[in-house]
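Q: What does the assembled structure look like for these inputs?
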Amino acid sequence: DVKVTQSSRYLVKRTGEKVFLECVQDMDHENMFWYRQDPGLGLRLIYFSYDVKMKEKGDIPEGYSVSREKKERFSLILESASTNQTSMYLCASSLDWDRGGRYGYTFGSGTRLTVV
Amino acid sequence: DQQVKQNSPSLSVQEGRISILNCDYTNSMFDYFLWYKKYPAEGPTFLISISSIKDKNEDGRFTVFLNKSAKHLSLHIVPSQPGDSAVYFCAASAKGTYKYIFGTGTRLKVLA
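A:
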């Protein structure tokens, strides 16, 4: 089974802290994504990467950056955490061709981040 | 600009009855659609998909219908079971892109 592992299930951070969310996938997928899920807003794309060291902004990149130094690992960085970044963060991966094939993305279990 | 819309934030259905979840889209370039199911504190998991060359796809209790002219798809669950209680997201993608656009989700509650 494809696995996408997010290092933390729950995190509590203080306003102004630099926060790292880590995601690792074990199926050699080219594409990796970071989404946040908020009630009434669904899943919104923050950043994605289609290759090592390549990244593209999604719909809501402000306040975030990403790093992809190795194919299997995609990190989301909150440069200076703010309370409006309290959310569920979901990492996903997919194969390069045909939008991930029949099954689209494989998601991790999510990280619930609370910024106080 | 919400390209994929799920206008019903929640739905309650009696066990054994049919659940119908709806999704509308605006981008005529979308040609592949997915439904994901999400339990609390878990990531979304793939449920069923449909290509724009079809108007129906069935997998056990789950059937997805696509009406291209209306830019509308629906997910039917028959019969509904309490374990189906979750948030359901539809997602759409256009050929040549890497990413899916997700709807806002519908929370389904199946009452025993």
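The radius of gyration of chain A is 13 Å.
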